[in-house]
Amino acid sequence: MRNNITIVNIYNRRLSLVLHLDVPKGINLISQNDVVVELNPGENQVVPITLGVDKTTLADMKEVKLDIRLKNPAAVFSYNFWVKILPVQQLIIVPVQRDFVVSKDDREVNMGLRIKNTGNITNNFYIAYSSRFFQLDKKIKLSLPPLKDTIVYFKYTVPLILLHDISTERIISRIGNDTNYQSYSFSISKVTNHKMMHQNAFATFPVMLEAGYISSGMQHSYYWGFNAAYQFDNNNSLNVNYHSRQYGIAGIQRDVFSVYYKHNKWDMMVGQLSDFRNFYTNGLGAQVTYHKNDYEGVSVMAITNWQSIPGAQRGQLLTGEIRYKVKKVLLSTLAAVNQDQVAKVNSYLFLNTANLINTERIHFRVTGGIGIDHFTNVLEKAANDQPGYSAGYNFAYIRRKWSFTSDVLMNSSSYPGIYKGWRSQSHVLSYNLRRNLTISGYYNSNFTRQTYFIDSVYYDNRFLYNNTNFGGRLAYSYKSFGIAVGGGYSTATGLISANLPLYKSGTLDLNYRLKNVGSISINSILNYNDNFGLYHEKVLYYANRASFQTRWGGLNLMLNKMPYLPNFENQDSLYLMGYRDVVSFSPYVYHSFLHQKLQARLQFNYYKATQLKNLNLTESFLLSLSYSNPSHGLDILLYGNYFLNTESITSNYGTLTVRKMLNVPIITQRKYYDLSMIIFEDKNGNGKKDEGDPVVQDARVDIDAMSFLSNNKGIAVYRNVEKGTYTLDFHNLANSANGLIPSRGFRQTVTVAGNTQYEIPFNKGKVIKGYVYITFDSLSSSTFTKDRLRITAIDSAGEKFTTLTDEDGNYILTVPENTYVVSMNPEAFDDNFKPVQMSYSADLVHNPTANIIFHVKQKARKVNKIKSNINNEK
Fold first, then answer.
1. What is the DSSP letter of 753?
2. Sheet arrangement for strand 2-8
3. pLDDT for res 748
């Protein structure tokens, strides 16, 4: 920190003075103190001051005193200024132990975090522990004064039901607040005498079997299917898919199958194909694609109307597409020929696309096409054989403060295909007034021949394609809150209910995420016209949606009001016949069971629509159950919708789907092998297991992240491993081998070239044992447990051996003959609890056993003693 002091001699004589600074504790004066200044009359001098702040200085306002001491005449003038120490929030976090191994008899993990507040203010924070596998969601709130540290332990016992499915799972701890936090993970693995690297020793190909049942009203049907895939190598693969018809249902049904083969840069597919890019076609066909690179390539596809789905029997399609580059321009050319046997028309289409500019700030793409419908019907041929065109572009320009997007597509009325006559444009200009505040203006126009759709749930969602709207929008967001309001004009034509008036339109969108609870969303559109039609009436149209979502359930609401108008072409002759009012709400609850393998949702749907005294009321319950077990490759989905009112036009509906993944082995292609480890006590020291050598049970060996315990026959098996060299680590033997240690060392290597049996001889080792005891301050209520404290022994070569204390503070280590430094983990302690001595030496060259006792002592509290004079003596 820097400051300047300006001194001006206002007297008519020469002055000699000394500047002296008195800085408070925690502030250091870096520049010179007691500065001597000589000034003639009218002269001035600037004295720079540089101050430093200790890291241990708390956030506060600090007073710096300044004395100006005159020599002629002798006098002292005192001044002061204040230094503001800004608050700093900072935590240093060190996990005490990050890897845990559990077994059937020991399922408890004690996750410790040593936390130190290196900031200069009290830090209020939380520690959140979470795991989807363990269904764990625990939050602990803490407060730590500045420059203090603590250790926080969280004990968790693995449920016995989950122990079978554990391989290596993680519990994530998040320390901090909602916007600024640090994350650490704790690894939990299971000790067993056998584990697998791969599920099968042979090369496999996955086959997904699927069967389903569908009930709709009084009609019942079922189906089945499968999907099989085989990876020959990195460049060759085959996929076969089959889905049967729905047996038991009336009408035309089709079996659906397809075969997909990939070879290097070629893709080939035959079977049931669909293409809805320009024409509505589905049926048996074939497609071949060549990929030169990520963008360039060639594709040819032919689709017949044989075995097509109902409603798509009309068209037969032949199409080809080529994607290529010219310098930096990406181009695409598509040609298509479609035969519609019902309408008796042959369509020809040629479409080009060019990505002219594609940079970080500018994107510009243009499209252009031509085509013609050739009618084979003589009566329609002359009137309709007219060529058509398609033209459009997509443009986006983005800068730091503002952006502009413009999209246009214009298809003539004679352009062939499903987008015949499509004319749409959208333009949006946005400007960031501030970091979280944006203003924008928009213009949208869309004309198509499609008029409306009916939603399958609410039966009322109308998509107004033939509409024009324009206006402005203001959006603001801050952290978990966002709001946008807009206003403008909107109109729509071509609806089945007639032309809608020109509305004054207003919109509101609000989203808010509730901390640790859920989220709220509100979307509202309000349209108004005060001078409509023949009688100059007021017309109102609004659509409102609201939802509240949490982890356990939520609520969806809808409130709509739409004018009902006669279907007249002349808008001036229209009049308001009434309104269609819709009210709908859907509360639901959601929960997961079996550690999130089973997901359940129950929802009630209420829908009420009134129009010209006609009432449509629908009440129903929806149930969804989803069970997924990836380790067993099983998925089950049950869905049902039950209507409470019998007059509903929709029948009760339910489905049941079962999927099972099978990895089918190819027994002629073995890829993986078994590594069997036999652990025994080598009585005669020959390194081989003889008939009289006893086996060693419960000896732990680690291979990579896998931990094994030998069974009652001294065997541990690592199944279906890849060929290669593996390192066997015995440093975590702890007390499991009954005082025995591996004769060939605590780290051994074995090469697997096929099924391998590896004998591991053990012999008697040296023992380091002892215990930890704690002395508490009698005036303190603090606790400190002596279980699961890490004890480390390091030999003369730097080899480390570790163990943990039991609930009584006892520990034991079996190690080879050597000299050791035995110590506790310093990260397990804070300023309140510390060992009297952190480490000791142990000589196991000349001694068979070393007994080392650690004494942990709590820091004594200081008590101010006040002597009282009972007799009021002076």
1. S
2. 2-8, 44-53, 27-29
3. 94
In 3D space, the residue among 737, 701, 729, 704 whose CA is nearest the CA of residue 717 turns out to be: 701
Q: Give the pLDDT confidence of 326-348 residue by residue, as tens digits.
A: 988 999 999 999 998 777 889 99
310: exposed, middle or buried (Cβ count in 10 Å: 0-12, 13-18, 19+): exposed
- How would you write 106-155 as a 3-class SS string? CCEEEEEEEEEECCCCCEEEEEEEEECCCCEEEEEEEEECCCCEEEEEEE
Which amino acid makes up residue 847?
A: N
Output phi, psi for 191, to 5 deg: -95, 130
Element (H, E) at 320: strand 315-326
C-alpha 351 chain-centroid distance:
40
- Residues with Cβ within 8 Å of residue 718, at least 6 apart in sequence: 194, 195, 196, 197, 674, 675, 677, 703, 706, 708, 726
Comparing CA positions, the residue from 744, 731, 754, 758 lying closest to residue 677 is 758
Task: Return the pLDDT at 461.
Answer: 37
> Could you tell me which residues come within 8 angstroms of residue 393 by beta carbon, excluding any fewer than 6 positions away?
364, 365, 366, 367, 406, 407, 408
Give me the DSSP letters along 771-838: EEEEE--TT-------SS-EEEEEETT--EEEEE--TTSEEEEEE-SSEEEEEE-GGG--SSEEES-S
Residue 572 DSSP one-character state: G
CA 499-504-505 angle, 5° bins: 95
Number of neighbouring beta carbons within 10 Å of residue 235:
11
Q: What angle do CA 400, 405, 411 make, to 5 degrees?
A: 165
Amino acid at 89: Q
Angle at 564 between CA 563 and CA 567, to 5 degrees: 130
List the helix and strand counts (H, then E) for the chain: 2, 58
Spatial separation of the C-alpha atoms in residues 343 and 318, rounded to whole Å = 18
Closest of 346, 353, 391, 351 to residue 372, by C-alpha = 346
Task: Specify the pairing of strand 673-681 against strand 756-764.
Answer: parallel
DSSP 862: P
Adjacent-strand bridge partners of 110:
155
Backbone phi and psi for residue 631, each to the nearest 5 degrees, phi listed first: -65, -25
How far apart are the C-alpha atoms of 543 and 703, rounded to whole Å?
Answer: 62
* Cα→Cα distances 674→202, 649, 842, Å: 12, 62, 40
Contact 58, 88 (CB under 8 A): no
The pairing of strands 481-492 and 91-95 is unpaired
pLDDT in tens, 850-867: 999 999 998 875 544 434
Low pLDDT (below 70) residues in the chain: 250-253, 309-314, 378-384, 448-466, 492-500, 566-573, 646-649, 734-737, 780-782, 861-874
Backbone angles phi, psi at 120, to 5 degrees: -115, 15
Token pair 């079962």 is found at 658
Question: CB-based contacts of 803: which residues, under 8 Å, 6+ apart?
Answer: 734, 735, 790, 791, 811, 812, 813
* 668 CB-near residues (< 8 Å, 6+ apart): none
CB-based burial, 519-529: b 16+ in 10 Å, e otherwise: ebbbbbbbbeb
Helix, strand and coil content of the chain, in percent to the nearest 5, comes to 0, 65, 35
Could you write out the three-class secondary structure of 77-99? Answer: EEEEEEEECCCCCCEEEEECCCE
Q: What's the pLDDT score for residue 453?
A: 36
- The candidate with the shortest Cα–Cα distance to 734, out of 784, 790, 686, is 790
Residue 73: is the preceding peptide bond cis (ω within 30°)?
yes
In this structure, how many other beta carbons lie within 10 angstroms of the beta carbon of residue 410?
Answer: 16
Residues forming a β-bridge with 175: 127, 182
* C-beta atoms surrounding 563 within 10 Å: 23
Distance CA 854, CA 828 (A): 13
